[in-house]
Design a protein that fits this description.
This protein is an alpha/beta fold. It is built from three helices and nine strands. Strands 7-5-6-4-1-8-9 form a seven-stranded mixed sheet. It has a two-stranded antiparallel ribbon with strand order 2-3. A hairpin with a 5-residue loop joins strand 2 and strand 3. It is globular.
């Protein structure tokens, strides 16, 4: 594993705690909160912030970090702790079923069907861009829990080229990407 990654792609195992409301009502008619059955261990924000990402990032690097809307403040905290500065929303994943329908599932306020991938930079990362034609909106089928669409990895490479890259908390190995974490 190199210690000079110019692309860091992360999908932290966020703890939801009481951030989601179940669609099931209690006997009194009120909605209740529940932790998701994630099939993997989650981490609190403090522990995610403490990961040694600064030590593997190149001086000029781009971070792509997945978050839910409920975790936006946490994601911004992690970005700073890892030595990056928030720039924009890199990707919005509009989740679809295998039949192309919008996925909608529980949420505390509104039914959720999209996920955000924030883009943050350090150093002279802007000089790494090789294409200004990469689209932000990704409409792709949702598969197993937390597995992100392959097209996002492809768009990252289209945007920045074949630079040293690592996927943190990878669910599977992908060609051209080093993997780290669960």
């Amino acid at each position: 594993m190199t210690d000079n990654y110019q692309i860091i792609y992360a999908d932290p195992p966020w703890s939801f705690g009481d951030r989601l409301r179940s669609s099931k009502k209690l006997d009194n008619g009120k909605m209740h909160f529940r932790e998701l059955d994630l099939h993997y261990s989650t981490m609190n924000t403090k522990d995610i912030c403490a990961l040694p990402v600064k030590q593997i990032a190149h001086d000029d690097a781009v971070l792509f970090i997945w978050t839910t809307d409920a975790h936006l403040p946490d994601a911004l905290e992690v970005i700073l702790a890892w030595g990056f500065r928030y720039k924009t929303v890199g990707f919005i994943w509009n989740k679809k079923t295998s039949k192309g329908n919008q996925v909608c599932f529980m949420g505390k306020w509104t039914m959720k069907g999209s996920e955000l991938c924030l883009l943050a930079t350090k150093g002279k990362a802007h000089s790494l861009i090789i294409s200004h034609k990469v689209r932000q909106l990704v409409e792709a089928e949702r598969s197993t829990h937390s597995r992100k669409p392959q097209v996002v990895r492809e768009r990252i490479v289209e945007l920045l080229g074949n630079l040293p890259r690592v996927e943190l908390f990878a669910r599977e190995a992908n060609d051209g990407w080093h993997t780290w974490g669960n």
